[in-house]
Predict the 3D structure of the following.
Amino acid sequence: MRYWSLIFALAAAFSVGAFAYAPFSADWWLPNPAGEPRHVVSTFGREIDALFVIILWLTGAVFVGTHAALIWAQFRYADRVDADGKPARPAQYFHGSQRLEVVWTIIPAGILVFLALYQMDTWANIKFRSAAPRTPVLAELTGRQFQWMMKYPGPDGRLNTPDDLFTVNDLHFVKDRTALIHLKSADVIHSFFLPQMRIKQDAVPGMTIPVWFDCDRAGRYELACAELCGWGHYKMRGDVVVHETEREFQEWQAAKLAEQGRSQLATAPGDPGGDEK
Amino acid sequence: MSAEPTVAGVGGPIVAHPDQGEGEHAHPGATNLLTKYVFSTDHKVIGVQFLFSSLVFFAIGGALAMAIRWQLAWPWKPMPILAKWLWSAPALGGQMPPEFYNKLFTMHATIMIFFVVIPILTGAFGNFLIPLMIGARDMAFPKLNMFSYWIMWPGFVLVVWSFFVEGGSAEAGWTSYPPLSTQPRAAPGSLNGQTLWLLALLCAGISSLTGSINYITTIVMLRSPGMKMLRMPMTVWALFITALLQAFALPVLTSALLMQTLDRVAGTNFFSPVAGAVANAPAVVGGGAPLLFQHLFWFYSHPAVYVMILPGMGIASDVISTFSRKPLFGYKPMVVAMAAIAGLGFIVWGHHMFQSGMNPALGATFMLSTMMIALPSAIKVFNWIGTMWGGRIQYTSAMLNAMAFVSMFILGGLSGIFMAATPVDIHIHDTYFIVGHIHYVLFGGSTFAIFAGTYYWFPKIFGRMMNEKLGYVHFALSFLFLNGTFLFMHIVGWHGHMRRIPDPTVYEFLRAPGIVWMNQFMTICAFGLGLTQFLFAGNFFHSLFAGPIAGPNPWKANSLEWTTPSPPPHYNFNTLPQVYHPPYEFSVPGGEDDFLPQTRPLPPNITLDPVMA
């Protein structure tokens, strides 16, 4: 009967094996750019990943330790009977040990307090409003069923002026520049999720929430909605384009603005044949 | 009034408890079929009623899970057989509509939490065991007890009915965050299904609350002579602390549910800053706050997680001690740890709201309190291992499931630390990592505890033994399939797989071959896990009628329920038992047997360490 412990050992080995293999596979590990699975693209991403790895090591060690003890107890202290059918060995009559209780309270408490305090700075840098970068707002983002509406300040650099640029599901910013957005919701709760940049923030109706992030690799990424927002929640997907230079970003913005001007002209009231001009 | 009744001398004739004898509290034995088995006030019958009803809902909730897994592994592929009658939309060619997927996970969680795990652990085990284990003849309020079962029925009916109303069942997730849940046009299920959902939960809540009041009163007032609080079995302690949690936290959920109901049917705006913003409806200023609902909801629903795990801890403690033939390691620290889990449980709800827009400064304090809750949990794990250490472990089906509870709870508890760490939570919040964590705690934990409890007390409840060999097979397959199903959820989760999306392949980073493969592997294991439960059901119902006769104490256990016949007669005990020590006095040196029922005094040469036992 003692071999029942092997099924616990098998499950533990399976768990440890899967978690140990994960960092070696781009598919199994935290999401990074497709071409560069080893490279974390954002400052916060690097901090969060480091904390994640610390916790993974600590919990992994505790998992292995406790499971080793559990499996050994199961194997070593399984009931066995001698030839007469009597127990080969009596169980100990033992109610516990206060010293052990104190030890296995204080050690985990110390580790947990350390973990909690160690995380505080990163948390404050990512979320506290006092840590928000003093840069102009990149855009105002409004989630609504089921798209992300972006409003960029136009060339004048100010929001809510006639030259604002409107896009849908299309977030652009510049490499190595901290992007600051104002997050809103028009209907239900959504959640702004940039997996590769490890950023997530709910968009709540009635609130405007500042979110900031950066990226050190130009390229295309994905924006997801992480909070259930209705039947189309799963396809509330946006494109994120990180431009190599400010100039490139401005070129994109100018082109978009021109396009917007044309389409506004096209639908101007009382001018059904707008493009006949 | 004293909770400690008088006894006419140790070992002498036992005077019946003043509240229990033939006085005002007594109720006559039922005479006809209807009062004996249907509208019964006997706590044992009510416990069995809870058990059977919830097992039926277990099957329904499990079937919903299979459909969820199918869609995730093979998105939009028509599910064989089931598609035809589960979501009959011929226009879609058997494809699952995305809103139906939302209904699936909403109702899966709702049913499993509110109609399976809580009713089995507190309703079934609580009702059946508490009076038997503390030596009482029945609950303090038998009629209220009957009411607590029958008020579940409107809940059961409303939950099933909600699938068939216009718009279908609720689909705002089991958390039911407004405004998605309050605005009628936000989702098809926000028509009538959501209102039925709210009413069903209110019924389940009333059931839990009346049950809790009964458990607390019974445990405080009706313990038999000598049954001091610190001589109660851990299962009773766990149910007692659970009942306190329910009694203090449930009113908050009830108020939140009522406010949401009013938002939906009476035009109030507790939870919406703007009304009618959905689907281009003209917006009206509402003045409510969506975060208010989250605070109220999680103020109950985080403690509810402990409602679902504490009784499991109690059951595991009793089973592990009995089958290790060894006293429970650190009885008092175990009680204190449970009380600490419950106490801390009230100040950690904010960890569900780290990304919600709540003031992030609160996140820092909630992180610390959440981290601290790992501490009493760790104490419990170490004590269970300490109980087995040096014991004589008997591998029964109950013991295997209890050990699986410990093993799964370790993994589920440790993965909780990732979420408690606020910066890491930013990335894994609302991903499958959370789903994996909660299933290790609730399936690996609570459900294995339910299995352990069922294998352990089945002989007492029904007077017959379950088949151990079938029990072994059921355990082994469940254990392996469970790990196969839920382990990879952590990995796809930290890879960024959002929860509650019917089609991950919409996203490029989730189209990775490894993620697709893991989703399919998890689904295959989930189906294995589901099918394995038929073994349990078969064993259960076969043993019910054809199992070997059990006798009063088949496991040679110490607690009071094993001193009565199986199944126990009406009123449980002929004379109220006199209790001399906690129920974990196994392998006492010099004893003729390796167990010592609570009704027999300790040998004169043994004194218990007052700190540990």
Remarks:
- Chain A has four helices and ten strands.
- Residues 270-277 of chain A have pLDDT under 50 and may be disordered.
